[in-house]
Amino acid sequence: MITVTINNKKYEANEGEYALQVLKREGIEIPYLCYHEALSPYGACRLCMVEVTGGARPGITTSCTLVVTDGLEIQTEAPEVVRIRKVLLEMYLAEAPGSEAIQELARKFGVERSRFADFDIEAKGDRCVLCGRCVRVCNEVLGVGAINYASRGTKSNINTPWYGVSSACIGCTACAYVCPAGAIDIIDSGDERIMETWNRTTLKLKECVETKEFFATEKVIDHVYSKALDLPEDLKEVSAGSRMRRRASEFLPKYLRK
Ligand code: SF4
């Protein structure tokens, strides 16, 4: 274990972890968008900036990419850090005027309005802040790579290749799950899952043989079975709830006999 000082108070930390992980563990509030515990550090949104006041490299840096070392001293509320954070939040408000999650985050850190756009809380505009979590989860975690950054500058966006229906997307919904801005729309309708945001890429859903509920896309099931060895074939046909009930009915009698 090593010792780091955050806002003049000492904390224990594990060698090699990132400062943002320590901040989160210790309940020290700091905003972030591109960080997610399932993904590698990215340092893109810049919101998790802290000031390093003691240690090898003093200055302002992103805590999600700052590896803690023994004796590191950081301040999360230094005046310059707070100033940069507020300007960034104003920019995100302007970039994603339709995202309630971003409005809430900005409000939490003292920003109600943006100087960079006519900010209207009722606006239903763009919700994406280009943090890239969806791109990275699709690539890094699933190994699918159905979406990526497209275009440049003010036209930057995240999309499927050629802005069309994706043949790669498996409809797992991980992208929507990790999106901090609520920018990805998915509609389940009957036996279909429609990835609205990904140009209405449509996937067939599988029906549970026991409950008759539609529970996952056929492509997701194939993907899982292609990665995991020795999964019983019959589990392909049943929802998570039915799987749990099956396991409970297999194991509970043994325990109840004890
Ligand atoms: S739903 Fe499609 S785009 Fe989203 S993470 Fe899964 S495979 Fe990638």
Which distinct ligands sit in these coordinates?
iron/sulfur cluster
How big a fraction of the residues is strand?
Answer: 15-25%
Instruction: Give the helix tally.
Output: 7
The rounded distance between the terminal residues' Cα atoms is 43 Å
- How many structural domains does the protein architecture include? 2
The ordered H/E elements are: EEHEEEHHHEEHEEEEHH
**Level of helix content?**
25-40%
> What is the rounded Rg?
22 Å
The number of strands is 11
Uncertain parts: none
CATH architecture name of the largest domain: Roll
Sheet with the most strands: spatial strand order:
2-1-5-3-4
Mean pLDDT across all amino acids: 92
What's the level 1 CATH class of the largest domain? Alpha Beta
What is the 3D form?
Answer: globular
- Helices and strands: which structural class? alpha+beta
Quaternary structure:
single chain
Classify the fold: give the CATH topology of the largest domain.
Answer: Ubiquitin-like (UB roll)
